[in-house]
Structure formats: C-alpha cells, structure tokens
Amino acid sequence: MGKKLLLNSRVYAIQNGIAAALFLLLLTNEVLAYLLNSYPSSETLWMLTLNINRLVGPFVATIEPYFHQPYALMAALACAAMMPLVAYRRRSWLGTAVSGHMALGGYAVMSFTALDWFYRDVATASLAGDVYSLGKTTGIFGLIAMTLLMVVLCLLNHVMFFMRVKTL
Prior knowledge:
Elements: H1 2-7, H2 9-38, H3 43-63, H4 72-89, H5 93-118, H6 129-167
C-alpha cells in the first residue's frame, strides 16, 4: 500500500497544484497592488487587495526587499507559479520537491503570521462582529490545513528520495 502511494502520480499532482495555487495567489496580490497603485479610486481593487494582503502580505513583505526592479517580483512569482506545473508535466520529482518545499515555507510563514494576527484585537467599523471573526478563523484554519498537508506531502518526497537511494 505504501509503495503504491509513493508511486501514485495523483499525490504529486496534488502537491504541484497546491504549490502553484500559492504562487498564483502571491502573484495575484502583486498584480492587484500594481493595479491599485495605477487606479487608486477603484473600490473593488481596494477590497480585493485588502483581503488578499491580509493573508499573503507578511510573506510578500519578507521577500520583496530582495527584488529591486519594479516588475522583478512579479516575474519571479510567475516563474514560481509555472515551475510546479512544468515539473508535473515533465514528471520531475526534483522540480516537485523544490516547488513543494518552497510552498511549504510560504504556507508556514503565512500560518504563523495569521495566528499572530488572530490573537490581536482588531478594531473594525462593522457591526457584524460574528461574521468577521468567522471569516477570520476560516482563513486561518485553511492556511493551517494547507500547511499540514504540505508537510505530509514533503515527507512523502523525502521517503521517495530515500527509497530511490536504497534501491540504487
């Protein structure tokens, strides 16, 4: 059963899909921030940017100082989003492992900062406090679930690596 799981391509499709989804979300955040800078009077852009930036903003803030050119971060995130898709298409175990571990790091940082944000009191102008905290906890539990899933999938990558080394 365990060997079938390790050789099943669906496991790697899930890992590559989750990694690509994270990098696409980060790319969407950067594109929305650029559009908001160009069109600051758009309420829709403000709403989308604020909601996405709550989740991915701390992670983007840690990697943004390394990109000094205006579109370098967007280009890097576009390449990072394509890497898991190319790795799955070519059936590259190494590409899947690299993109999966990068995504695991991103999910871990975002989960930690989301938990830190959850325990702070945030003042809102809304009278619907219950709805706000429900959305707040749902996003955090979603991030934690994705982080734990990526931990399991990365552990499967390590087991697959050591199985290949053992059989050589």
